[in-house]
Amino acid sequence: MAEAHQAVAFQFTVTPEGIDLQLSHQALTEIYLSGMRSWKKRIIRLKNSVITGVYPASPSSWLFVVIAILATMYTRSDPSMGLIAKIQEHLPVSQSMSTQCQVVLSAVLFSTMLWLLLIFTMRLCLKQLLSYHRWMFEQHGKMSTTTKVWVALVRIFSGRKPLLYSYQGSLPNLPVPTIKDTVKRYLESVRPLMDDAKFERMTKLATEFESSLGNRLQWYLKLKALWASNYVSDWWEEYVYLRGRGPIMVNSNYYGMDFLYVIPTPIQAARAGNSIHAFFLYRRKLNKEEIKPVSSATSTVIPLCAAQCERIFNTTRIPGEENDTVQHWQDSDYIVVYHRGRYFRLRVYQAGRLLSPREIEFQIQRILDDPTPPCKGEAKLGALTAGDRIPWAKARAKYFSSGVNKRSLDCIERAAFFVTLDDDEQCVMGDDSAASLDRYAKSLLHGKCYDSFCCCWTRFIKGFSNRYTLATDSFQLGYNAEGHCKGEVDASLPRPQKLNWEILPECEEQISQSLAVAQALADDVDFHVFPFQDFGKGKIKKCRVSPDAFIQMALQLAYYRERGTFCLTYEASMTRLFREGRTETVRSCSNESSAFVRALEGGEVRPQKLRLFRAASEKHQLLYRLAMTGAGIDRHLFCLYVVSKYLGVESPFLKEVLSEPWRLSTSQTPIQQVELFDMVNHPEYISCGGGFGPVADDGYGLSYCILGENLINFHISCKHSCPDTVSSKLMFKYLIVLTFGHNS
C-alpha cells in the first residue's frame, strides 16, 4: 500500500557493491515537519506557562521594575532599604566582575524578588476578592455600594488580555460547609417527601450523626481541603464516574443536537469535512490558550475555572476491573473514523499544516466509497465498550494487549477524537418531525450500540453539536453552490489507513454478550424531544421570575399531577467559581414548591397561588445560589461518606442519604458563545440542545435549553420497563403546566 511505503523514512539492501540506501525524501520531509510542529507546540506551551504563571502581571513588567529600581539608585537613594547591599555582600567574589557590575546584579536580583512579591500579593488579593459572593444574592438590577467597590477592585487586580488558564491560580478553593448547616438544609429538603413518622426518624439519625461521627469525619475533610485544590473533584470523578462498573452508554454519556431548522449541506462528507476542520481550529485555540476565559453568566468580571478544557481532546477512558482511568496525551495529529464496521486512521495534518475542509471532505469520501469489508469480528467490536466495564477490561487485557490488536486499539485511544459516519440519515424535518426528533435523540445517545467507542467520542449524523463548530461551519467556512467544502484538494494525499484486527472466536463471543447488554439498555430508553414555542424567557422575565425557577416549579407540578406525590429532584448547578469546581446539586423540591403545588391543585384563590409561586421561585433561586457558592449539601455529604468508608466506620444516616433515588434528574443546557450567532437576523440557526438518560429506573431525565426569547427545548427520557413512566406523557402534562403559567 502507498501509505505504508510513505511511512518508512529509508530502506536499504545489501548488494555485492555494499549497502544501497534508498532514502525517501517525502518521508524525511514529513519527519522534519512533524518535529518542527511538535517543537512549536512546546515553545507555545512554555511561553503560555510563563505568562499564566506571572498573571495578573506580565513578563514585560519585570523589566519595568528593574529599570525603576536602577533609576532610583542613580538618584542616590536606596529603595531597598539596605537589602541590595546585603545581596551584594553574599555574591560570590569574582575577579572579572567590577564593583559597579556587582551593584547592578544585586539590584536586578532585588528587583526580581520585589517583582515576584508583587505578583504574589496581587494574586492573593485577587483570590480574596473572588471569594466574595454576596453580589450573587443581591436583587437583580440593584447593586450595593460594597459590590460596586468590589467590582472596581476586581477590575484593578485583574490583568489585561488573560489567557484561558490565567485565572486558575487566583481562583479560591471550594469551602467545606459546617456539619450543622448541611444537616439542617438536608432535613429541610426531605421534609416534603416524608410523613411525620419518617421525618422524625430521619431527624433522630441526623442529630446523632451531627453530634458524634459527623465531627470526626469533618475533621478529616477539612484536613484534605487544606492541601487539595478542591476537596470534592478527585473523589467525585473516581467514585461517581470511574468506579462505576455498569455501561457508561446511556448511564453516563450525553448528546448534543445539530441545528433545528437548517441543513447546511446534504453531503455527509462535506459536513464532516467542515466540522472536523472547525474542531481542530478550536483545539488549536485551546492549545494556544487564545480562548477568552469563561465568565459567570451573571457577571462578566467573574472568571470560571477552565480546568475541564484540558481534557476535551486526546483523552480516553481506559477500562479496569475495579475502576477506569483517564489517559490524556499532549497531542495527536489524526482522528479515527468508523463507517460500516470498519475503523480508519485519518491524518489531518500534511506537511506540517492542517488539512483544508475540502481535503478532509475528500478523505472522508474515500472512506465512504471504500468497498473493503470489515475484518472478522470487527463490525461490532465497539460493543465491548458499550457493555459492562469489567468484561471490557478483561477482554482488553486478554485480546488487545499485543500484536496487531494492540496497535489498532492504541491508534483509537490516542486519536484526537472519534468520529462515526452513520448509514442512516437523521433529519428533524419532515411530515412527522416529533418522531424524527425522538429517533434522532436515541441515535445520538446510544447509536447502534457498536458503532462508537464509549470513552471519549464524537458522533456525526449530518451534524455536530459543538456551538463553536456549528458557528464556524456555517458562518466562516461555508460551502460552495454544489454543497461541497470550499477550497482545493491535493490529490496526492495518502489514503486513510484501515485498521486491522485479529479477533478470536472467544473474543467474538464476548462481543456478542456485551452487545446484548448494551442493546437491552438502549431498547429500554424512552425518549421524547419537544421544542416549546408558545412563549419563552421573554415573557417569563416580564413577570419578574427566573426562567429556570419557573421551569423547575412547572416540573414539580407536572410530576405531582402524574404521580400524585413529590420526589427527590436533582438539578445540576456548577461550582466553577472555585478552582477545579465541577457541579453541585440543587434540590428543587422544597417546602415552598410543594406548598405552591398543593395550593394550585387545591383550588386556592389566585392571589394566594401567586404569592406561593413567588415564594417557591425565590427559594429555588436561593438554593441555586447557595449551591454555586459552595454551600450545597450533596457533595459535602458524599465526601463525608467517602471518609467514613476510608475509616471503616458505618453511618446509618449517610448510608440512607446516599441511597435515596433521584426520580427527577434535571439540567439546563447552558448557551455559550452566544456572540457567534445572530439570533435576531438568523433565528433559524438554533440548536435543539442536548439530553441524557434517566438516572433512576423509575424516574425521568430531563434537560432543557432556553433559546432566545420565545423557545424552550425539552429532552425527556425514561425507561419502557417502568410502567409508571412515559416520556411523552410527562411532556404533555408539562406543556399544560407551562401554558397555565403563561395564562396566569
Number of strands: 21
CATH architecture of the largest domain: 2-Layer Sandwich
Kindly name the structural category. Answer: alpha+beta
Widest β-sheet, arrangement of strands? 15-21-20-18-16-17
In the CATH scheme, the class of the largest domain would be Alpha Beta
- Strand percentage, roughly? 5-15%
Runs with pLDDT <50, length 5+? Answer: 1-10, 456-460
Q: Give me the oligomer status.
A: single chain
Dominant shape: globular
Radius of gyration: 30 Å
Distance between the termini: 71 Å
Q: Please give the domain count.
A: 5
Percent helix, as a range, is 40-55%
- Largest beta-sheet characterization: 6 strands, mixed
**CATH fourth-tier homologous superfamily of the largest domain:** Choline/Carnitine o-acyltransferase, domain 2
CATH topology (level 3) name of the largest domain: Chloramphenicol Acetyltransferase
Q: What is the count of DSSP helices, taking H or I runs of 4+ residues?
A: 25
Overall mean pLDDT stands at: 87
InterPro entries: Carn_acyl_trans, CAT-like_dom_sf, Cho/carn_acyl_trans, Cho/carn_acyl_trans_2, CPT_N
Family: Belongs to the carnitine/choline acetyltransferase family.
Membrane topology: Multi-pass membrane protein
GO molecular function, one term: carnitine O-palmitoyltransferase activity
